[in-house]
Each structure stands twice: as C-alpha cells, then as structure tokens.
Design a protein that fits this description.
Residues 209-351 form the DUF294 domain. This is Nucleotidyltransferase substrate binding domain protein. This protein is an alpha+beta fold. 60% of the residues lie in helices and 8% in strands. It is globular and about 65 Å long.
C-alpha cells in the first residue's frame, strides 16, 4: 500500500505541466509528510520525503529544459548531470532544506562548442535556480549552487579543481572536498558525477595523510552535551533555552560517518547507507553500528520537529528545537543521541589516526 502511494505521488509529479502545479503538489506533500513524521520510523519517513524531493527537483530541471527549447535556446548541446550536495546529496533533506546543487557537463570538442555549451548551461542553470525558488527552495547562503560558475562547469574543469583541492589541503579546500563527497546526481548523465568520486576515493586511498586534514574539519562542530551530561542550550535571542539540533547533533554524526566511509572506501550516498556499508565491510561491530543508526534516527526526527517558516514563499528554519518542545521524553532521546555522537567522534579520531600510522 505504501509503495503504491509513493508511485502515485511520483506519477503526479512527473506529469505536472508547469511550476505552478508542481508548487501545489509540494505544498500538499509538505503538509502530508509533516503529519506522518511521528507515525513512521524517522529513517523510513526520511526516505519517503527525499524520494519526493528528488522527483520534484528532477521535474523542475526537465521543465527548465522544455522552457528553453520553446524559447528558441535549443536542446542541451551535450550530456550533463544536475547534482545535489549536502543533505540533498545524502538523501537527507528536511521538509525545508535550501538549494545545494551543481551542474557538470561533458567537455566540448573545440573552443566554439565550448563557448556554446557554457552559454547554454549558464542560461539553464539560471532557469533551474529560479524554478527551485518558485518551488520553495531558498538559495544556498554559501553559494554552493548551479548559478555559481564554481559549481557549474565542464567535467575536465571539475577534475582540475578536484586535483587542486587534493594537493593543497588547506581548510577551505578540505571543506569543498567534503561537500563534493556528498555529491549525487538526480538528473542527467550520472557517470559524470561518479567518475569524479572515483578519483577522490582513489586519491585518498593512495594518500591517507589527507585524512588528517579532513579530520580537523569533520570534528569542527561539537556535540551539544556538556562535560556533566547536560544539554548545551542557546543562551540568547528567540531560541534561548532551545538546542541547536542541526549543528549540535545531526551534523557531527553525519560528518563522522562520512569520514569513516571515505577512509574505508565505502561508496554509499546516505548516512544510513554508509553505516550499513561499514558494517557489511567488517569495519565496525554490529552493536556500534546499531548505536549509530539509533542516534541518526533521533537526530533526523528532532531536526524535522524544529519550527519552520515561510519567507517570500521559501520554506526555512533555524534548525533549533525550542525549549517548549523539549519534553522529558525528547530530552532523554536527545541526550542518548548526543552521548552516542560524542563516542562516535572519539571513534573517528582513533580510526583516522590508526589509518594514517599504518598508511
């Protein structure tokens, strides 16, 4: 029954004729899925939500292509992939995630063809970005978006940039590498993305010392639990008394698992999939893996319970769970999540240092 419901949603999205209809579908799904959060296991609910996000985004790209064709810009001059980064790349978007995306297109045969491709994909990216805003996805404040030429370029330029980041692992370059590590194609020629990931994983396998640089970035966000087991709460502003779920619980868990996956060569996209891959590969004991899954499930649920607002038609949130939503039961859940998250960060540090010593 659940599979049939999702197939119906997929068919409805894929036959939407314009962005107005697509926005109506998204608003309805936002309400329906929000009501289902506490009725399903949070990771099952998360998979359903992100299937819907993928379908909505892919349909927006398709409608952008069709609009350019009707306006006389023609078809895409070559293969390309529309990719998601961050929570979108991991298949872990909330109901109100922003845009974190890019566009990779195949290399042209000559300079003239390259200029044609650059012009077309610039126009396409602008149209896609605008359509996704109409759909309620705000722009990424960090500029990781296809309208930024840093994240919209031919494959060989992406390859050169990746190499630059790898051989000069300063803080900013490592940040970009870890953004790229969550890349996932949701439309177009997926091999353009997977080939880049092949190169990144191959390099880290040959040069394990880069894992130390990744470790510093990975452990940058600390778990929101004090030395005496108390929650570290927001002290000022409208969120005073609440807890930062995104950066104090969810991100530290996600970052830790991602680095372990890179270290062990586990090529999974989601955090849940990466934990499963680490377990199946014999890199972690089942009891520890189950703890990580439990912490992830709690973080996903509590993150999705944070208040949201509509600003200029965009769904947004500050990622903070207010004090009045921190019931006794949720506080106990959160503390369990944070204790596991703290142990995970220690595990990651130890694992990376061991890998470097052996490498």
């Amino acid at each position: 029954m659940e599979r049939l419901r999702m197939e119906k949603i997929r068919a409805e999205i894929q036959t939407a004729a314009d962005m107005e209809r697509l926005r109506q579908i998204r608003d309805r799904l936002h309400k329906e899925l929000g009501q289902n959060l506490l009725l399903l296991h949070s990771l099952d609910w998360n998979r359903e939500l992100n299937q819907a996000h993928d379908w909505l985004i892919a349909r927006s790209v398709r409608l952008a292509e069709e609009a350019l064709l009707m306006e006389g810009a023609g078809k895409a001059p070559g293969a390309y992939a529309f990719v998601l980064f961050g929570s979108g790349g991991r298949g872990e978007q909330t109901l109100w995630s922003d845009q974190d995306n890019g566009l990779i297109y195949e290399d042209a045969e000559d300079e003239r063809a390259a200029a044609t491709a650059e012009a077309y994909f610039r126009i396409l990216a602008d149209r896609i970005g605008g359509y996704l805003q109409l759909l309620g996805y705000p722009l990424c404040v960090g500029g990781v978006i296809c309208t930024n030429d840093k994240w919209r370029k031919p494959w060989s330029h992406y390859q050169s940039t990746l190499h630059e980041w790898l051989v000069d692992p300063n803080w900013e370059h490592i940040r970009y590498l870890l953004i790229l590590a969550d890349m996932r194609a949701v439309y177009g020629e997926r091999s353009l993305a997977s080939r880049l990931m092949d190169q990144m994983y191959a390099y880290t396998e040959r040069h394990p010392a880069i894992l130390e640089h990744m470790l510093h970035n990975t452990l940058h966000h600390k778990i929101s639990l004090g030395v005496f087991g108390q929650l570290i709460r927001e002290r000022y502003g409208e969120d005073a008394g609440g807890v930062d779920i995104k950066y104090g619980a969810y991100i530290p868990i996600v970052n830790g698992i991602r680095l372990l996956a890179i270290e062990k060569g586990v090529r999974a996209e989601s955090t849940e999939g990466r934990i499963a891959g680490l377990l199946e590969g014999g890199f972690v004991e089942e009891e520890i893996a189950q703890d990580w899954l439990e912490a992830l499930a709690i973080a996903v649920k509590l993150r999705s319970l944070t208040p949201f607002q509509l600003e200029d038609g965009h769904y947004t949130t500050r990622g903070k769970l207010p004090a009045d939503r921190l019931t006794k039961e949720r506080t106990a859940e959160l503390k369990l999540c944070l204790r596991i998250g703290g142990d995970l960060q220690k595990y990651v540090r130890k694992s990376i240092h061991k890998e470097i010593e052996q490498g």
